[in-house]
Amino acid sequence: MRRLRPARFCRSWLLLEGANEAVLGRAPESGADVLIQELEDFTPPELRPAARTLAPDLYGAWRAAGQIAGVRVNPLDQDGMDDLAAVMRGAPDIVALPKVAEPFHVTRLDEAVTRFERDYGIPEGSTALLPNIEFARGLVQTVAIAKASRRTSACLMASEDMAADLGAERGPDGVELAYCRQRFLVECVAADVVAVDCPYTFSDPEGVAQDTRWARRLGYVAKSLVDPAHALVVNGVLSPGVDEVERAKRLVSAFDAARAAGQGRVELDGALVEMPAYQTAKRLLARHEAMQAYERGSSS
């Protein structure tokens, strides 16, 4: 039986042109954890019928390569129902919905996906949902949106539409979306779902690395992307590194020894280590060990 990577271990969520067969075919080479056939903004209306026909074979190929196969359909009051009727034949692992601003948008999607699962003999409840938060109205309702369906284990925040809705000016430093990204993370943590950070939509590799490091510092463990070349950069930043793991082990060992000796803190590498730093190190080690265990299980 196929072992599906848990959402909390999915670091990179790559959105791809839905009708571009060459790009879709090469997508597994990117190394992204989640591949998403994008049928909305990246697929002009006249190309959507052709894109839909690719779904069954495409998702099968992505799954065979070890990645999670997803699709982003159009809003359901536009082309979304036609999208679902076609792509659900391929049993996608995840269905993403753009422009989610109200909880009922997710409820409608859940109902539609359930109906198609029954029609196509897909195990009911096996398809995850990924609400995309793209407007201020959706941002302030993220908790309610995330809780509207049991299928939702992650939510994604968009960048370009969010900036446009705010009337903000986009820039590589991302200052204009800083509050939104922080607010979105808080809402997702409160709802107990994975927060998928907005994509870095500029081309420089150092820029995406810096942007991802900033997101990780906030607490993000996942990021969406629109450039396949960014996947390995994102995966690297969002995975505990060898040096980080070793330092965390030393910190935990030193702090445990200090506490056993009746001390409340310990000095390590010239810095005083107190309980918050100890807890952060423990979380890093727990995530590293869980990811390693998953990878071992997947390869066995």
TrEMBL record:
Its cofactor is Mg(2+). One of its GO terms (molecular function) is lyase activity. Keywords: Lyase, Magnesium, Metal-binding. The keyword DNA damage does not apply. The keyword Metal-binding applies. Residues 11-228 form the HpcH/HpaI aldolase/citrate lyase domain. Pfam families: HpcH_HpaI. One of its GO terms (biological process) is oxaloacetate metabolic process. Substrate binds at R72, E134. InterPro entries: Aldolase/citrate-lyase_domain, Citrate_lyase_beta/mcl1/mcl2, Pyrv/PenolPyrv_kinase-like_dom, Pyrv_kinase-like_dom_sf. Coiled coil: none annotated. Mg(2+) binds at E134, D161. Belongs to the HpcH/HpaI aldolase family. This is Citrate lyase subunit beta / citryl-CoA lyase. It comes from Bradyrhizobium erythrophlei.
